[in-house]
Amino acid sequence: MIEARGLVKKYGDVVALDGLDLSVPEGTVYGLLGPNGAGKTTAVRILTTLLKPDAGTAKVDGLDVVRKANAVRRIIGLTGQYAAVDEYLTGRENLRMFGDLYHLPTAYVKERSDELLARFDLTDAADRSLRTYSGGMRRRLDLAASLIAKPRVLFLDEPTTGLDPRSRIDLWEVIKDLVADGTTVLLTTQYLEEADQLAEEIVVIDHGRVIAQGTSDTLKDQVGGDRLEIVVDDPAQMDAAAQALRSVATGEVTVDRADHRIVAPVVGGSLTLVDAVRSLDAAHVGIADVALRRPTLDDVFLSLTGHTAEEDQA
Prior knowledge:
elongated, four-stranded antiparallel sheet, Alpha-Beta Plaits, single chain, alpha/beta, Rossmann fold, six-stranded mixed sheet, 12 helices, 2 domains
């Protein structure tokens, strides 16, 4: 449904996209994961006809985004990083305004607006000014506006940025429902948990280039094995604990002195956990907490780039 080949975009000496390739199957959520400055928004702007690439090609449902821009706009919806709704209008008036911009029939817009307000739990607030809406309500209305024309393809550019955890989870449920109805979604995010929850396929980009691609589990497998985490009782024992864990670790042992935490990559599941506890006991290390977990997408990003998404953002 979405194809990009060799997309390049430069702003002076800054290379925002450096040969980006994408291929998004129909009826799926495709995650574009990366920190601020990775090139996610630039890619979305090109795919939604708002920006022309310096090199490469892109198509949406077989339509070239440069040569067939008007036709592309008829079949897509876009929710950007910042709500595009008008705070001086009511929720209902905002949806009708978007319907007018799409040149849709008045009767259809009225019926569709009522449907979307109900779907996004905004019916009770439909006739209130947006100045009385919370951030989560505005975000839901912004997403509703992008759906007024029933787009086949929906672009969501960091749709949950700035939302509280409850509002973020609510929006995730809405996105899942849209895909269940057949909508194709390209989701950009810097939230690792969000990509893990929603995307069937994930592309990790850094500095405008694809550095990894696959399902969440496939990407986690690239890191290799599970993660054994321990928190020691006494910070003075951290070096001894790290040395003890090296006997069971399959890679570099990481020491976080601020949290008194040590992380070691391991294989073997619970048997390795038993061996690790025995090694720590033999070294007379007191343990405050111990856990065995699968690697997160944050671990993947750190493994691939040498830095976390949060560090890059900072």
